[in-house]
Write a structure and sequence with these properties.
Layout lengths: L8 E5 L12 H13 L4 E4 L11 H17 L6 E5 L5 H14 L3 E4 L11 H14 L4 E5 L11 H10 L3 E6 L4 H10 L6 E4 L5 H6 L4 E3 L7 H12 L3 H19 L2 H13 L20 H16 L2
Parallel strand pairs: 1-2, 1-8, 2-3, 3-4, 4-5, 5-6, 6-7
Helix pairs in contact: 1-2, 2-3, 3-4, 4-5, 5-6, 8-9, 9-11
């Protein structure tokens, strides 16, 4: 099955906002998607870790993808690609998610390895899972490697390379593991015109670009999309020193962001940009920035100040 890889650029793993009763706050989510589009991102990742995917049911997922796609198209941003998280613990359920995402307007499926029975997930089993999914998927598939949410399962570069070489419907990966060497091995082995290896954190954005990343998929882009786009612009123009200066700000802010969790990211967006709230679905709570220490807020404030300079 011939497939096309995601475009090069910055991708925001979009936050999902909720109302106080924990229903979808589509108005705030669409406002957020609009700010990302105006910030120059190449795409959005919906229903990923930052989108609180484990707390979304099938109806939520379908309505969210369709609403974002329609909103972007209506604003004249039809070029922005949607990568949609579709991971589940079985091939059958994963394919259901992918089919629903495709029908709702997604361009690509992002799939975590199954992780309920971690001890059974040998490299061979994980590779068989991805081959089975990709062979039947109506969307091109990206492998999502994030040991922090899969009980420590860390997909090797060997496995990712084998999967991409054996199944043309596997067109990329997101490496939130932070292993730049793995990213380098993958990008230098697989053809760049058919496979997109993405670094998965702002913390190593510039090193990832040097290692062949297809841009970045990074939580901090929810706060500062323009700043990420500027790092990419400076890198492409050969201004490595300028890119390094901004990268240092991103690394400090990204380290702070990890300490507040997904609802904390929403609270920060709400505080600085005036929409949504930190509301999560239980057992997650609804934090406000008042609960965050100066050591967390100061590096984020510096990034916000830079972001607003590009307005």
């Amino acid at each position: 099955m011939a497939s096309r890889k995601p475009n090069f650029g910055v991708y925001t793993p979009l936050l999902t906002f909720f109302a106080k009763d924990e229903s979808l706050d589509l108005e705030s989510t669409l406002t957020h998607a609009k700010r990302m589009a105006e910030g120059g991102v190449a795409g959005l990742v919906l229903q990923g870790s930052n989108g609180e995917a484990p707390h979304l049911d099938h109806d939520d997922r379908k309505s969210l993808v369709r609403a974002v796609r329609n909103h972007l198209d209506g604003l004249g941003h039809a070029q922005i690609q949607l990568i949609v998280g579709c991971g589940a613990h079985s091939v059958r359920e994963t394919l259901t998610h992918i089919t629903e995402a495709e029908e709702s307007g997604a361009n690509f499926a992002l799939v975590l390895p199954p992780s309920y029975w971690v001890a059974a997930m040998t490299p061979a089993v994980v590779e068989e899972f991805f081959n089975d999914v990709a062979s039947r998927s109506p969307l091109p598939v990206l492998i999502y490697n994030f040991p922090g949410v899969t009980g420590g399962i860390d997909i090797s570069s060997d496995s990712i390379i084998r999967l991409a070489q054996s199944n043309s419907n596997i067109v990329g990966c997101k490496l939130t593991c932070g292993n730049v060497g793995k990213l380098q091995r993958i990008s230098s082995t697989l053809p760049a015109d058919s496979f997109a290896a993405f670094g998965g954190k702002s913390d190593f954005f510039l090193p990832a670009l040097v290692a062949g990343s297809n841009g970045i998929i990074a939580a901090l882009a929810n706060i500062a999309p323009k700043l990420h786009v500027e790092v990419l612009r400076r890198y492409e123009n050969g201004d490595i020193k300028g890119a390094q200066e901004l990268q240092s700000r991103l690394s400090h802010a990204d380290d702070a962001l990890v300490k507040v969790g997904v609802t904390g990211v929403k609270a920060i967006v709400s505080h600085y940009f005036g929409y949504g709230s930190g509301q999560g679905r239980k057992p997650l709570g609804c934090p406000t920035v008042d609960a965050f220490s100066a050591s967390v807020l100061d590096p984020i404030q510096r990034v916000v100040d830079l972001e607003k300079m590009y307005n």
